[in-house]
Amino acid sequence: xxxxxxxxxxxxxxxxxxxxxxxxxxxxxxxxxxxxxxxxxxxxxxxxxxxxxxxxxxxxxxxxxxxxxxxxxxxxxxxxxxxxxxxxxxxxxxxxxxxxxxxxxxxxxxxxxxxxxxxxxxxxxxxxxxxxxxxxxxxxxxxxxxxxxxxxxxxxxxxxxxxxxxxxxxxxxxxxxxxxxxxxxxxxxxxxxxxxxxxxxxxxxxxxxxxxxxxxxxxxxxxxxxxxxxxxxxxxxxxxxxxxxxxxxxxxxxxxxxxxxxxxxxxxxxxxxxxxxxxxxxxxxxxxxxxxxxxxxxxxxxxxxxxxxxxxxxxxxxxxxxxxxxxxxxxxxxxxxxxxxxxxxxxxxxxxxxxxxxxxxxxxxxxxxxxxxxxxxxxxxxxxxxxxxxxxxxxxxxxxxxxxxxxxxxxxxxxxxxxxxxxxxxx
Amino acid sequence: xxxxxxxxxxxxxxxxxxxxxxxxxxxxxxxxxxxxxxxxxxxxxxxxxxxxxxxxxxxxxxxxxxxxxxxxxxxxxxxxxxxxxxxxxxxxxxxxxxxxxxxxxxxxxxxxxxxxxxxxxxxxxxxxxxxxxxxxxxxxxxxxxxxxxxxxxxxxxxxxxxxxxxxxxxxxxxxxxxxxxxxxxxxxxxxxxxxxxxxxxxxxxxxxxxxxxx
Lengths: 427, 214
Fold this sequence. Notes:
CATH architecture of chain A: Orthogonal Bundle
Number of helices of chain B: 9
Largest interface: A-B, 25 and 28 residues
Low-confidence stretches of chain B: 74-92
Shape of chain B: elongated
Largest sheet of chain B: 3 strands, antiparallel
Order of helices and strands of chain B: HHHHEEHHHEHH
Strand content of chain A: under 5%
Radius of gyration of chain A: 23 Å
Number of domains of chain A: 1
Structural class of chain B: mainly alpha
Helix content of chain A: over 70%
Largest sheet of chain A: none
Radius of gyration of chain B: 19 Å
Oligomer: heterodimer
Number of strands of chain A: 0
Mean pLDDT of chain B: 79
């Protein structure tokens, strides 16, 4: 009897343990999928943050136009990214420059679909960064065309260099965990090119002295609310980039939060020391700068360095905003300092403060190379794109439209009809 | 608004406000001289009416009644006559509509209110910007541009009988752009809103709202 029992145990136990192992694997896969989908939803919610922040930063007569741009670009970006972008970014890359498979992904594994969902949210984020910089003066249709090209070509090609396992920057060991450069700097440099091509808003700079004139946004409460929503979405942006539900989520989310706080504090300290007014818009941008900054190194930094990264990013926001004004570049929401400069600094910081391998010269040089390559590609490619669209259909609205407000002229709607003189014309 | 709709509106106001022989005379006068005209100014009609007949009610009251009736008949501006029968583009009111003298009076008032808010030293700069800017516009025909330039040069005494809405919009926009350059967009917007509010209170604005021109 004992023999029979032992024999049975000898057969049954391995079967039970192997099925238990298979069950564990499935649970892990399910958990990973659940986490990445949840993170995707959080990143999607960032679009609401962008929309509120940008809308609040613009004049009432343009608020609907800004909302529309944010609403439509996420739709267009997602469709275009599924069609072309994902294949270029994550498809099989033999050269290291771009992928050549997985276009219009279908009949793929569940993992691929989850990955596509998460990455399409990133693509939409890169596209939407541009809209804030060129608000209040851009033709809606031209913007949509540009957003499509940015999401279809400019963003995924750079993304393939870094996040495709065969990408040339990935091969060199370039670190950009959640996309300080891949998403934010690329978006920021595209915004810079767009702002240069389109030019400043009417009367933004004094004709004789060249001095910048303030054009306050119509609702700063929306700006603050947008900032908070972006902050919340960023937990999904950074922690979701693990692509699995593991124990590192806590430290990544903590680093994200610390850097955002330090970014806002950095801006406040800079303003106090510089005897400048502490503006709400600057504080929100400081926190966002901290968030952008930590995005590259959130998984590879100790908390104290996350704070330092965020703090410096927050400090950089104010002078870089002034630098843009000195060059007469009109960036309505500060997208270029926050995403372009913040992203570049964050990517370099990810190399400087790399856990257990700090100040490694080789790593830092690689980081600089990646940041430089990102600037050269995104800025010049988008500069050509915006110039071409400008020549073909024009990027900028007529001055009559700028006067009336783009809500009415581009969409025949107004955000605040009670206060809008034009609504008397409505039928 | 069609000629038929306008006719109904006018007849209902005239018959409600006048009595006896005067009513018959006025109605005949209206039928013979104005009812089939594609465009005319209400003020011009009333001017002629009051010089020819002794109408017992006040001119201003009749003007208001006629304005209200034509507005409620479905038009946002009786004196704005469309060239074509196509409905207005929902994105933007038609720029090729013709504005008559009543509308031009409103435009003149809007422009005056707007420039009155500029510093005296800058008013000439605004007119100069309009003068130079409108000459660069190739989309308007030469006689119209010349008439508007004359208007700018000589003021209200050289006001043309009619002008294209698109050109008036451009003309006003040139003033707005100049103010943006001089004072910044925030002050220019404030000036624009203040000018619109003041011009809205004019009786002529019931027929041609000033926001047609912005």
